[in-house]
Amino acid sequence: MQMAKSTGEILKKLRAVMKNKAYVPEIFSAYIVPSGDAHQSEYIAPCDSRREFISGFSGSAGTAVVTENKALLWTDGRYFLQAQKQLDNNWTLMKDGIKDTPAIEDWIVKELKANSFVGADPWLMSFEKWENIRKKLKHYGIYLVKSNENLVDIVWREYGKPEMPNDCVFIQPLSYSGQKWKEKVLRVQRKMKEKSVIAVVLTALDEIAWLFNLRGSDIAYNPVFMAYAIVTSKEAFLFIDDSKLSEDIYEHLGIAGGNRHSEVTVKLKSYGDLARAVDQLVNLSDGKIWISRSSSAALNMLVPKNRRVAEMSPVARLKAIKNPVEIRGMKNAHIKDATALCQFFCWLEKEVPKGKQTEISAAEKLESFRRELDDFVSLSFATISASGPNAAIIHYRPSDSTNRRLTVDEMYLCDSGAQFRDGTTDVTRTFHFGKPSDHQKKCFTRVLKGHIALAKAVFPNKTKGSRIDSYARYSLWEGGLDYRHGTGHGVGAFLNVHEGPQGIGTRTNDEPLEAGVFVSDEPGYYEDGAFGVRIESVILVIPVTLENNFMGGGFIGFEPVTLFPIQTKMLVPSMLTRDEVDWLNYYHEKCRETIGQVLLEQGKMDAHRWLVKETEPLG
Asked: How does pLDDT run across 180-235, given as a tens digit for each residue?
């Protein structure tokens, strides 16, 4: 995590462009800079890090607003401490989700006069967000206007804006994907028929990668590539730079031997031709077009309202429910991953007392253990290796300026994961290598009680994640504690570590949980300037057979997929119920049996002895 950079000169140049009629249709009194790219990705390529460039804030979520004399950044509770450290004195942090913090549009209508113009790049903002802001501003006589060109890019080019990534695409074979891409397209077409649409426009990078059984490396930690897709009732179009494609890809997509004159199953188009293709769909046909409201405002505005089916992409739901091959692969990936974690924490236990290891050296060591594993591709996100007060920064990433030594006097939080060809992992554990305080142990125990409560939960099929979020928070609430992040996110199968549409949190517009979905279970507690606790495992939604079955709808629960010990030294056993102790002992027994067997087979005896010690039953 880098510290604050000087942004005064950058803001001065951006404000000048906001007034320059060579670049803007009207003089902008404010300019909105979202976090995402044209695909509304959470994690983005360096060339799309516009908000970070102008503000210095590197978190994955946040929106900047720049006016003639003010610069503000809205971000959520995961990033409050990080933003405070990374924003210089030109910026005001707006703590999104806090009671007294206005929404962006509410702040603008109080700040600007009627007949003012607010600019934004419609490619970088979802249609849903664009419309919410546009309607609110219009009510007060203020107009949201699309800029002819992204204004941040105009300034950024003076400083050397990175080029768009152009890495090669590779095939995700049937042994990992579990279903041929042609069958996936047929499933999408059946969904289209149900909605009576002539085409569906796909913009989310992980959806396109999943649909065609392809992967890439255009965005760090996310095995995706820059592309769009359109599926019609008869064919599919892939919009991509053809320099990214090898002969194997042409063959995979049905263009045998790369011969473009052969019968094509997928028609290839240039990445930049999507808008033109959508225009043609609108002008050359009469049917309805399916395009998600979470896609860009620019694309949605190309389709007349009466011809637009503005619902979630059908691929989002299909991708989230994993098939048996994907489920087997995800479980295998987590078993491999746990062996690396056992080696790592065994090593840490010996090294931390020597006083030479730091947050950065620890993260590097963990990555080295993972790199030895079969089918390892990359990390699934930058490792959160955080000691003492740094662990209170929810999405902390160590840097040279913030790096701390690991000691026996402070708690250590490690949130990490990997991308394997057969699955994606994400696990957080909090350890103390010395003697934790009573207060720390009580906080840790309440977090674990929440983790167990959610892991044990049984509920009706298709219950929304927001309905079960309080399972994880109840014990914390009893102690007057809480946390400012979601309780669980979906996880892709060798795709994005944060995958929609399902999740567990306080949002009320979430999607129902169904069997076959992988989500995380990660309650936490963070004490500013002192320590942080998070316990995160990936869990699989499974059917549950009960004596009764109310209304015949069926019930679901969770199966643990992450199999790695939770440090019992950090617990206050008297705070746990008998059922919670039984759950923890059973979980540790499963960790010992499953991971221990692999460690023995690999001859990793030190790590095995460490695992046995850490999984001793709690009395």
From this structure: 999 999 999 999 999 999 999 999 999 999 999 999 999 999 999 999 999 999 89
CA distances from 565 to 76, 545, 557, 569, 584 (A): 30, 28, 21, 11, 9
SS3 string of 93-107?
EEECCCCCCCCHHHH
Domain ranges of the chain: 8-159, 170-318, 324-614
DSSP string covering 401-455, please?
TT--B--TTSEEEEEE-EEETTEE--EEEEEESS---HHHHHHHHHHHHHHHHHH
Q: Give the tokens for residue 312.
A: 């979630």
Residue 261 has pLDDT above 50, yes or no: no
Residue 264 has pLDDT above 90, yes or no: no
Which element (helix H / strand E) includes 542? strand 537-544
Sign of CA dihedral 601, 605, 607, 612: positive
Strands 555-560, 537-544: pairing kind? antiparallel
DSSP summary character for residue 298: H
Strand partners of residue 412 = 387, 431
Asked whether the predicted pLDDT for residue 102 surpasses 50, the reply is yes
Residues 460 and 541 sit within 8 Å (Cβ to Cβ): no
Amino acid at 507: R
Q: pLDDT (tens digit, 9 = 90+) per residue, 125-139? A: 999 999 999 999 999
Q: Exposed, middle or buried by CB within 10 Å (0-12, 13-18, 19+), for 138?
A: exposed
Domain 324-614 homologous superfamily, CATH: Creatinase/methionine aminopeptidase superfamily (3.90.230.10)
Side-chain-side CA neighbours of residue 495 (13 Å): 29
Q: Which helix (H) or strand (E) holds 469?
A: helix 465-478
Superfamily of domain 170-318: Creatinase/prolidase N-terminal domain (3.40.350.10)
Q: Compute the distance between CA of residue 429 and CA of residue 412 in angstroms, rounded to an integer.
A: 8
CATH number, domain 8-159:
3.40.350.10
